[in-house]
Amino acid sequence: MKKILGVIKILGPGLLYAGAAIGVSHLVQSTKAGAMFNFDLVWILILANLLKYPFFEFAPRYALSTGRNLVQGYASIGRWALILFSALTLLTMFATQATVTVVTVGLIAYVFNINISLTALSFAILIIAMLVLLIGRFSLLDKIIKFIIVLLALSTVLALLAALGIEKEIKPEALANFDWFKHADVVFLIAFVGWMPAPLEVSVWSSTWNLEKIKELGYKPSLKNTLTEFKIGYIGTALMALGFLSMGALVMYGTGEQLSPNGTIFSEQLIRIYTTSLGGWAHWVVSIAAVTTMLSTTITVLDAYPRVLSAIFVELTGKPSKSEIKLYRIFLLVMVTGATLTIAYAAKSMAFMVTVATTMAFLTAPFLAWLNYRVVTDDHMPIENRPGLFLRVLSLVGIFFFAAFAVVYVYKFMSL
Predict the structure, then answer these.
(1) Domain edges within the chain
(2) CA angle centred on 137, ends 132 and 141, rounded to 5°
(3) Considering only CA atoms, which of 348, 350, 339, 351 is closest in space to residue 125?
(4) Helix ranges (DSSP H) in 164-220
(5) CA–CA separation, 383 vs 54, rounded Å?
């Protein structure tokens, strides 16, 4: 009982990870995978979660063992490693923030019947998210995420159980299997894996949240309890992904209905998947669960990038760490501005934004995975806290597969 209470007390970073992960990869990509290919990609989903696990686990392991975040860990490898990571962050940050915001805005526009421009509504949501972070900081984010994750988990489990006995009209011409030789299917697979369960850069975010949680607690929790808390969040996100894929397969597969690339129409389809299983009474419960989930993802991502950018700036310039609070506020404004402009000028559709962000995450995964492995196995890491043989072997297998698939994808793309 004492151990359980210890884990409950430090709940936060693992659930923040879940808040960042359960968003586009789950509501959009997992649902779409089930609707398009039935259960064909379940093994891919499980494999992606398994192979990415070590690199996400290394974040709390490193933070608790050294009192440093992964940005500082990359700097210890060499300035070149930090510069490369910085370049990857600058390359993906606006696309990632814009993607989760567009999906959030699509849900809000549908649920509350708001008919204003995508850019204007996105800007309004980003401003609200920024104010939440400036006023409440980490402690508020830490508190609201727990309620949101539980709400979505309960509604998804209930809907999935109800969907097991659902009857639907099957159209034989709509029954399709995943085809490894079909370009469109492979493109979707890359996007699916890229953010399943989350892009690897979330591991860096997680390391900063762990250190922030230590400040809030006023003491350093045990590594064992911290890793247990992380596993709760990680396993939970994997199960939720299976739940969304199953919902897409059970309710939509074979019906001939295509999930729309338009954010508002997609949101209507997503809510209908739940209400088809549970009944019309569940419309508002599910709507609020979906909206709050994507809002939490938007806020979590908006919190993470300024934290990481501040840490990068401090490491590259040698500024004192106390300047990170001021830098955090500056980078919040940068993120809101950059994401809004990206939505205004680049987001032709939700599908376009999702494909760009997830594909970039897929292609950068081998490099980030290797950096995380290097950090937890070098001399800065206490020997007793380094990963065991199983995690090290699984890490090397993951790095190999990420690199191999990235090369194959680039080759196929170049040969078109």
Answers:
(1) 2-414
(2) 70
(3) 339
(4) 183-194, 202-217
(5) 17
Torsion of CA 218, 221, 227, 230, to 10 degrees: -30
The string over 155-181, giving b where at least 16 C-beta atoms fall within 10 Å of a residue's C-beta and e elsewhere, is: bbebbbebbeeeeeeeeeeeeeebeee
CA atoms within 13 A on the CB side of 186: 13
Coil, helix or strand at residue 52: helix
Return the structure tokens found at 36.
């398009």
CA dist list (Å): 23 to 162, 197, 302, 322: 22, 10, 14, 32
CA atoms 171, 173, 178, 184: torsion sign = negative
* pLDDT tens-digit profile, the chain (416 residues): 444 444 444 455 666 777 667 777 787 888 889 988 989 999 999 999 999 999 999 999 999 999 999 999 999 999 999 999 999 899 889 988 998 898 889 889 988 888 888 899 999 999 999 998 888 766 666 667 767 777 777 777 777 777 776 776 777 776 788 888 888 888 888 888 888 888 899 999 989 888 887 887 677 888 888 888 889 889 988 998 998 898 888 888 877 777 777 767 777 887 877 777 667 777 787 787 788 878 888 988 999 999 999 999 999 887 776 677 889 999 999 999 999 999 888 766 556 766 777 778 888 899 999 999 999 998 888 999 999 999 999 999 999 999 988 888 787 666 65
Q: pTM of the predicted model, to two decimals?
A: 0.87
**Class of domain 2-414 as given by CATH:** mainly alpha
| Distance separating alpha carbons of residues 130 and 133, to the nearest angstrom | 5
CA 203 to chain centroid, in Å, comes to: 10
Residue 317 is encoded by which pair of tokens? 């310039």
